[in-house]
């Protein structure tokens, strides 16, 4: 073990903090439905302080999330809160695009102000619009741009996380997924290229 690695491990052990960027890896992310649900999204805490993360998520007037917090709306995207001062521009949040399968999770993209998701949206550009009291977490009424997913679509996507045990979708959720798949399908062009 290198001296630097020993120092990082020792520092994490002494502070209880595991939210240094190098320590957030593929195994930091699991079945979304094994996390704690809060109003349609899910939270966890990599430092084990799930209660503090849930308290921040449920604070009526907003709150700063503790280091180690993980926030996910859908299985393929996440945000992780690092220690104070880690990334002042993003209020210490790091954004992740995740590749999920029955075999687990791999991080596709990660970063602070520069992560663009698979739909072409910059994570930070949306989350920075949240009123400061919401600590960059987007929900209706927080100031962020609306996303093109209905609540039913979101529930269906969460239920179909391949890392989780299979659960049945309602007829409404099945239709919502079909609608979403049609909307995401490449558009056909005519022979003239239009």
Summary?
The protein has 194 residues and is of the alpha+beta class.
Account of the protein in words:
The chain has 194 residues and is of the alpha+beta class. The protein has a domain of 130 residues. The protein has 5 helices and 6 strands; from the N terminus they run H-E-E-H-E-E-E-E-H-H-H. A 6-stranded antiparallel β-sheet has the order 1-2-3-4-5-6, with helices on one face. Strand 5 and strand 6 form a beta hairpin. Helix 4 packs across helix 5. It is globular.
Secondary structure elements and pairings:
Layout: H1 3-15, E1 36-38, E2 41-45, H2 50-58, E3 69-72, E4 77-81, E5 93-101, E6 104-111, H3 123-127, H4 151-159, H5 171-184
Antiparallel strand pairs: 1-2, 2-3, 3-4, 4-5, 5-6
Helix pairs in contact: 4-5
Distance between the termini: 59 Å
Q: Tell me the fraction of residues in β-strands, as a range.
A: 15-25%
| CA-based gyration radius | 18 Å
- Record the strand order, biggest sheet: 1-2-3-4-5-6
Percent helix, as a range, is 25-40%
The succession of helices and strands, N to C, reads: HEEHEEEEHHH
Query: What overall geometry do the principal axes of the alpha carbons give?
Result: globular
Largest sheet: 6 strands, antiparallel
Mean pLDDT across residues: 87
Number of strands: 6
- Summing up helix and strand content along with how strands pair, one would put the structural category as alpha+beta
Number of H- or I-type helical stretches: 5
Give the uncertain stretches in residue-range form: 1-16
């Amino acid at each position: 073990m290198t001296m630097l690695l020993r120092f990082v491990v020792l520092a994490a052990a002494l502070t209880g903090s595991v939210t240094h960027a190098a320590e957030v890896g593929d195994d930091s992310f699991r079945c979304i439905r094994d996390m704690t649900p809060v109003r349609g999204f899910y939270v966890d805490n990599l430092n084990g302080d799930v209660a503090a993360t849930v308290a921040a998520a449920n604070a009526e007037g907003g709150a700063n999330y503790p280091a180690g917090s993980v926030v996910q709306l859908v299985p393929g995207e996440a945000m992780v809160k690092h220690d104070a001062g880690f990334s002042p521009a993003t209020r210490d949040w790091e954004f992740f695009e995740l590749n999920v399968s029955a075999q687990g999770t791999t991080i596709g993209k990660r970063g602070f102000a520069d992560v663009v998701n698979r739909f072409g949206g910059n994570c930070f550009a949306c989350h920075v619009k949240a009123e400061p009291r919401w600590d960059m977490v987007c929900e209706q009424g927080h100031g962020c741009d609306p996303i093109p997913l209905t609540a039913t679509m979101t529930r269906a996507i969460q239920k179909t996380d391949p890392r989780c045990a299979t659960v049945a979708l309602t007829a409404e959720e099945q239709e919502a997924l079909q609608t979403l798949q049609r909307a995401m399908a490449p558009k056909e062009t005519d022979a003239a290229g239009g």
